[in-house]
Design brief:
Elements (H helix, E strand, L loop, with lengths): L17 H9 L5 H17 L3 E7 L9 H9 L5 E4 L1 H12 L3 E2 L6 H6 L2 E4 L2 E4 L4 H17 L4 E2 L1 H12 L5 H8 L3 E2 L7 H12 L4 E2 L1 H13 L3 E7 L2 H11 L5 E8 L13 H7 L2 E11 L2 H16 L5 H6 L7
Parallel strand pairs: 1-2, 1-9, 2-7, 6-8, 9-10, 10-11
Antiparallel strand pairs: 3-5, 4-5
Helix pairs in contact: 1-2, 1-13, 2-13, 3-8, 6-9, 7-8
């Protein structure tokens, strides 16, 4: 209510953890700090709700950074029940499991970067030998094995699990998705290195196809079988839209946390704040919700830590017991 809650100053010390600081920030009044605190509370509540089924969306760029480890943690510890992402997530998970990326700088000379055999992804250096060639070799092997085993039509969820099974490495997000049977849906599967390999394989095996309708059926079943829905939405683009698009058919998300650097004034989906989604029925009016403006590589680690601290460190018992076994591709 207007004028009822006073702004409270706070201080921090070396013993403060993200959950403690978030609690203090909630009473501080402004600005993005309060949004962060509200997001941490919303995430803690969805993790404490045994009837909440939680979807996570993010663009692939985060997988090129060390924040990949936090995303892996969320899948490994079943803090989410379904992932919506872009094709590059598959690319980077393969490349970083089998190869290495290196720290760079936004201001490097890109001609020199290319001469030295790297691609530059922001401030990350991707060796050309650990990306295109490596992904091609691994994917053609996986696809040929699947084809020899009788596969002629696969969903992106099945493909993601198959890659994770073949990688067989605990640093891999797809490995844990496969192990926990957490669906990884890629609504734009052709926009990446793995997508190119699917096309190239199809040039030799014309009867091998992607069945995106199976992914959509899985999304439909997931949404309609839920009692309450939560969404942790990092960045924008197709991943964000696909998550909230399906949520509208269950009258919207009950919990919604956005982390974004996009702006609203250009009318883009990526810049649309969580409140705009209410008008579309993609987020419920009374949902626990917050939009945090900031780079997810900075915000996400602190947000997850704060929410785990506020929720007692684990998912609601009912959801944790169920895990991902119920999700079949």
């Amino acid at each position: 209510m207007i004028g009822e809650e006073r702004v409270e100053d706070f201080q921090v010390g070396p013993a403060d953890v993200p959950a403690t600081i978030a609690s203090k920030m909630l009473r501080a009044g402004g600005f993005a700090g309060r949004s962060f605190a509200e997001a941490a509370q919303a995430m803690a509540e969805m993790w404490s709700d045994p009837d909440a089924r939680i979807m996570l969306s993010f663009p692939a760029a985060l997988m090129a950074t060390g924040v990949r480890g936090v995303l892996v943690q969320m899948v490994r510890d079943r803090l989410v029940d379904l992932v919506v992402t872009t094709c590059g997530t598959l690319d980077h998970d393969i490349a970083r499991t089998l190869g290495s990326y290196y720290r760079g700088d936004f201001n490097l000379d890109d001609e020199e970067v290319k001469r030295r055999g790297y691609h530059r992804l922001g401030s990350v250096l991707v060796p050309t030998s650990d990306y295109g060639e490596l992904v091609e070799e691994k994917m053609q092997q996986i696809l040929e094995d699947m084809y020899a085993g009788g596969a002629r039509s696969i969903s992106t969820v099945e493909l993601s699990w198959e890659i994770g099974k073949r990688l067989n490495d605990e640093s891999s997000l797809l490995y844990w998705a496969h192990l926990n049977r957490i669906p990884v849906v890629v609504p734009g599967p052709m926009d990446g290195a793995v997508g190119l390999q699917l096309w190239m394989f199809n040039q030799r095996r014309r009867d091998f196809q992607l069945d995106l309708m199976r992914d959509e059926q899985l999304m439909s079943d997931f949404v309609f079988e839920s009692r309450r829905l939560g969404g942790i939405i990092l960045g924008g683009g197709i991943s964000k839209h696909h998550l909230i698009w399906w949520a509208q058919f269950k009258e919207g998300l009950d919990y919604a946390v956005y982390v974004t650097t996009a702006v609203e004034y250009d009318g883009s989906l990526s810049g649309a704040p969580v409140r705009e989604a209410i008008s579309w029925g993609k987020v419920k009016p009374r949902a626990r919700k917050s939009t945090v403006y900031g780079d997810a590589s900075l915000v996400l680690p602190f947000l997850v830590s704060a929410a785990l601290g506020l929720s007692g460190g684990r998912r609601g018992k009912g959801q944790q017991d169920r895990g991902g076994d119920q999700h079949q591709a």
